[in-house]
Amino acid sequence: MPSVNEGEISILIGGRAGEGISSAGQIIAQLLSSLGYRVYMYLDYPSRIKGGHNFAIIRGADFSVGAVRETVDVLLAMNKETIDLHKKRLSDNGAILYRADTANVAEGIGVDMKGILASEHAPPVMGNTALLGAFVRSAGIEWSRAEQVFRHAIPKEIELNLRVAHRAYEAGTELLTIPPLITKRLPVVTGNEAIGIGLIEGECLLYCGYPMSPTSNLLHFLAVHANHLGMQVLQPESETAAILIALGGAYAGARTAVGTSGGGFCLMTEALGLAGIAELPVVIVLGQRAGPSTGLATYTAQADLQFALGAGQGEFPRLIAAPGDADEARWWTTTCMDLAWKYQLPAILLADKILCEGMYSLDPMEKPTLQVVPLMAGEVEHPYLRYAMTASGISSLKFPPYKGEVIRVNSHVHDEDGITTEDPQVTRAMADKRAKKLQGLQEEIEKMEPVQVLGIRDASTAILCWGSNKGICAEIGRRLGLRVVQPVVLWPFPESCFARAMEGVERWIGVETNETGQLSRLLRQFGYVPEGVVLKYDGRPFAVEELEGELKGRVA
Amino acid sequence: MPSVNEGEISILIGGRAGEGISSAGQIIAQLLSSLGYRVYMYLDYPSRIKGGHNFAIIRGADFSVGAVRETVDVLLAMNKETIDLHKKRLSDNGAILYRADTANVAEGIGVDMKGILASEHAPPVMGNTALLGAFVRSAGIEWSRAEQVFRHAIPKEIELNLRVAHRAYEAGTELLTIPPLITKRLPVVTGNEAIGIGLIEGECLLYCGYPMSPTSNLLHFLAVHANHLGMQVLQPESETAAILIALGGAYAGARTAVGTSGGGFCLMTEALGLAGIAELPVVIVLGQRAGPSTGLATYTAQADLQFALGAGQGEFPRLIAAPGDADEARWWTTTCMDLAWKYQLPAILLADKILCEGMYSLDPMEKPTLQVVPLMAGEVEHPYLRYAMTASGISSLKFPPYKGEVIRVNSHVHDEDGITTEDPQVTRAMADKRAKKLQGLQEEIEKMEPVQVLGIRDASTAILCWGSNKGICAEIGRRLGLRVVQPVVLWPFPESCFARAMEGVERWIGVETNETGQLSRLLRQFGYVPEGVVLKYDGRPFAVEELEGELKGRVA
Amino acid sequence: MTDNNFTSRADNTWCPGCGNFAILQALKEVFAELEHKGIPREEIVLVAGIGQHGKLFDLLTINGFYSLHGRTIPVATGIRLANPDLRVICVAGDGDCYAEGLDHLIFGAKRNLDITVLVHDNRVYGLTTGQYTPTSPSGFRGRSTPGGIQERPLNPLELMLASGASFIGRGYSRHRDQLKRLIEEAILHRGFAFLDILQICPTYSDLTEYYNKHIYDWDTATEDFQKAWEKAREWNYSAEGRIGLGVMYKTSAPVFEDAYPGKGSVSREVRRAFTERLLAERI
Amino acid sequence: MTDNNFTSRADNTWCPGCGNFAILQALKEVFAELEHKGIPREEIVLVAGIGQHGKLFDLLTINGFYSLHGRTIPVATGIRLANPDLRVICVAGDGDCYAEGLDHLIFGAKRNLDITVLVHDNRVYGLTTGQYTPTSPSGFRGRSTPGGIQERPLNPLELMLASGASFIGRGYSRHRDQLKRLIEEAILHRGFAFLDILQICPTYSDLTEYYNKHIYDWDTATEDFQKAWEKAREWNYSAEGRIGLGVMYKTSAPVFEDAYPGKGSVSREVRRAFTERLLAERI
Ligand SMILES: Cc1ncc(C[n+]2csc(CCOP(=O)(O)OP(=O)(O)O)c2C)c(N)n1
Ligand SMILES: Cc1ncc(C[n+]2csc(CCOP(=O)(O)OP(=O)(O)O)c2C)c(N)n1
Ligand code: SF4
Ligand code: SF4
Ligand SMILES: [Mg+2]
Ligand SMILES: [Mg+2]
After folding, report:
1. pTM of this prediction?
2. Which of A518, B83, B155, C134, by CA, is between 20 and 30 Å from C21?
3. How far apart are CA D22 and CA D44, in angstroms?
């Protein structure tokens, strides 16, 4: 009988697209969370709406978790295929719960889903609820606790769902124990939701998104809540339109954001430069997925960093932050918005499918949110100069209508008043002005913990990672005695903080979900050369055992 | 009386837009060329069609020249403004020829343009011809030589033009001597024309361009000659369309190219990745101009290198070559086409306004053109697999209709047959296949002199430059005793050739027409760190004196 | 390519009941018939957009270019210019080609490019799980518009008529025989042939009942622009109205590609000679 | 902004005789008149595309957003959403907004966004020195088409009608008084107001004589779609035909922005409370 192994447990649930694997996974995550576990969920699905094979792995642990293991303790199978595909992952005394009418597996326990649904006159889509009920019982979770989670998590027909779940619960048997932990219970959110919350808290008033994995769900999340929030959520004709709508909004004083993936980001690059030279703030949520081109639409990669660094013709300041989990996603989204507005420039929040569609425990208290930068109101200036030269490079920001004044923003090289010029001196001066903003931004960022040190903080061998590889590297780093350095802000590159984080590091290895080691390439520009890189580029995230094995061999 | 100073002469001609400054400049360049000089012309004009101030500086020298001096020996003024603006550039005993009815300048010689035109009943647009006639006389050039040049260079109403020029010639006085050189006389072309010739010689069958400075003239050049060449030249609705038309053409077997500048390139980035994963060849002529965004439409910069390196989501092989003058532009354009087809990938020819719209002496013999890679015909393969795995990563390339076979190209991750897959193993294998092509390409390129060493080739202090700064750096390098290293191919970076070029270099300085030293940033990735950088980012190219002064201070 | 029914080994990943099955089947039958009529399968190229519709690319054993979202028409343009012997069929989505790629569609029609465009108009973004598209009816509640849209849909037939398409029709995924005939006629038409196919999407936008109630058949194709326009406006893709099926408009007009020289028509020697002459004039 | 004629200190860089001078002057007069009518100049925003037309941005003393080539309409959309008190006027070019940005134009009309779009339709790319545009007449010889184009032009009025614009008209740069009236009416119209302005470009496309021969005035604006359509088709932008000037169509329809909450309508406290509640449900 399996029990929680070294303070952690992994559960895999699988079935066909359309059978509610994702929502069942979320409920399992919330169940573990209600027991005090920190949770993480990985969702794997092909690019289809119904059929095929979907699965989710939910891992609960007594530490902050952000990755899955190859091995799972419980296998919940909506069909036989799930068992066939994943049985090999089962830990030695793992448990299988499966839909009884699809398979007959010696080592598992069949759930009479068909019978249960029939007796409650419930539709087939509630099959996952039945499986969940059986799981609750098998995991030794009290019904009352489960009921509370179900009530929160199931949006429709809750009573019927509860009856179905309870029937399966009653019919089930206890197979394992998941001892409750005495820690604060944390809410569970997807990365997209964390970003959405960050946008809401960052006072985003206008969000524009053309659907694209893995950020479509950010659009959906905001759309559902838009009305309560006085937020405008818009799906325009293209990504090109999306970002220009956002920039129009920013000109008129609305905090704006857009969300997309690489293909859509391509179409935004021209406007990125416009934001740069016109000094218009905008937050771009760039959810990376496996490319190139259409690539693997529903799988992951960290392969757009070099693109984000150089996107758009010419040179202009930009902010790029790559949060590693939901906490960071929330905080840095708000911070990106604030900094974009303070420094009047585009900010790119670089996420990926793993972060966007994964679920995490969110610790709202980890870091206080920034003081939201007020829109610069202040006294009347006359004549108002949109691009007035200042020591910081930051000009005062006003919006039309501004009595007695004209406010001009311009994609051409322009003078302080925003009027087009071709003068070489002004050209240089304005470039210097923008560069000064970047310098100020960098200084401000250096005070914000833009580089995380995790694992064994004083080890002389380090692994370097970014974005969604944070969790897995931290976990393995602790186990293998490695320092883990994770730059969250990638541009302007926080050189001082990074140098501090690397003090005493004698050798380091890069860990990235791409083919060419894009972070390492960036670090080389600053004089840091890796001993090696561990790269994965098949669309899937590293599993703990896999990366641990790789790293063990290298750092021995 | 000025004479050619150390084997070189500089002539500035200025006037309003619409007065034919560019064509007059070209004729002067051809005149100097007919005397055996190597020539270079810089054209400076604002973003307007008529009025304003345009000027061209033509420099002839007994060495291969690619930059202008601040000082000029002859000032040809179509109006008073030209004198006012440029008089300060005149060398000590320089000559001014000007249109008599617009100014009265003590130190210059007025040309009675009005009278000459009136007596020939010639239209005002022939004013530049009159000025040229006077110049021919003042420079001591034989009339017959001039007549021949005029006949080649003037497309319309040649006899009337000749009468006008001759009248001015007769009325003029000799002011200086430009001794003929006993060297091969070379044709004079713009960089755009050199690229165009490279495309023609590269068997480009379909060229697509949406107008944009500085590559519009490439579109015009090809459009004029398309019919004789059996070439298809097309102006589509947008740059997005342009590159996709090109890729469609490539799929069906036509060598294709597109031309644009940064803003249009932004709109092509999504299709760049498509070319990458679908393994479709295309040549993209990217003429850089001063940004960011609309920037300074008719001025120059080298600020899109980092963009070109990273453009497009995901990772895929690409070729980036940045020729430094017309010879290189012609040769590398053809070579980009050949290599794009051999390795089935996108090639970016990275030019800039200086190269595209500047005029150069072209030495057709400098390097033999490549053997054009034949479209792989070969024997029938069955079943034909568009993405067959091979040792080189290169699959055999066939086009529909292919009897009995199906040819599929795909923007998704796909198997050997081009069918979409989400399989992790195939994903990795296909990425490795593409990476292998890049490796093969790099090896081939290392044999092609992808890195030029100029100046004093064994000096231990070097300047590093790329693209259109080649000429000026070579010239100054020779004078200051510096080695000049110019990587022409920037990706895949020719590491071995570069290392060889840098052997014995103890310190180096980067010279770039941008704000952040983009080449230096690339070189840092390969372990090369500059002692400093000399950057110019006001839209104008370096003048010889300016850069020489800067460098003298640094390398002393 | 020995199979006779153009069926590839790829998995079909559409939902049960999806209207795309009918379009797939119709295409297979049309290809077989064309082959019968002497148009070899090798001369057909399918250009697919990104969306559920694009999956035809994988499912059919036919030459294909799986392009980007919204970008079938420019690819088709390039193919036609490079080799005018090829027959190009674009399979596009309503999001794909009425939103992201609308300008290309209009320019394809303006140029009267000789291609066939089949729009799988399920009036929803299928593959990205159910957002509204330019042809979604007013009030449509999609995942990005849970409150229902207030916009009015575009009428693609009217737009195509205004843009210069020389063949315009409407099909319905539940009328497969008619659909097959329409597709074949569109492919055989010389010029820009456009079909808006009302494609049932049971998962996100099941309009079967609504369509069944309102459809009727247009009798013969008209060359009369005015009449065609009246037909196009019978239904505005939103409110009630008679939904005509069939060929709405058909005319003959000059084809874009004909103005261009064919493939590789000038020899390498001529090109060499040309550049040499050009350079000689520049000395 | 103390001047009374909205004239900035920027140099005017158009060619002598350019029709843009008339549009500039008309706009100045309209702004003055609007101010008279109580619409403060601070509430007007000009969004300019890239091309000769865009230079209005520099020349006028009025709020402005100098956007990218082809991208006036989305910028205008964002401005209207952020602050529906602002009146937004897009000045666009025919290359700008019938080629590069055509889809935005159509979606602006579809949504019936409450903005004004003035297209400086000189039927040529002016700033890039004379290439053909979507409205260039058949046979036009531009720098990219020295042999003359065979394509037929788009008819922007017909397209706008098919797309849902609620105000459609045509002006002429040589009829300045009428132009002024048209622009003012367009600005005062609630909904998507579109004006195709036949703008003389003496340098690359001087059609003065041709226009002078064919123009006539439409009498009153019609709400009748059928009549409007007939007017739109009187002239196809290429062959001979009567070229009507004036308002072609005018109707009233729901405005896109009205479906959205106004600026900053929900307080920060409500937003905070919202996220707290949301998170509480996720424990
Ligand atoms: C540039 C870009 N933006 C967004 C996407 C994501 N995407 C894939 S399919 C799709 C919508 C498909 O809708 P539709 O064209 O109607 O096709 P359907 O699935 O309904 O057949 C979108 C938005 C993409 N692939 N590329
Ligand atoms: C993306 C992009 N492509 C091309 C250009 C270059 N460009 C500047 S103006 C212009 C054409 C302008 O033509 P039109 O819109 O008709 O304006 P006009 O000058 O005639 O007023 C072009 C193509 C650009 N600025 N951006
Ligand atoms: S979502 Fe709709 S269009 Fe897509 S496969 Fe399912 S039924 Fe077909
Ligand atoms: S080129 Fe034409 S549109 Fe441009 S300024 Fe000159 S006349 Fe006006
Ligand atoms: Mg659809
Ligand atoms: Mg124009």
Report:
1. 0.97
2. C134
3. 20
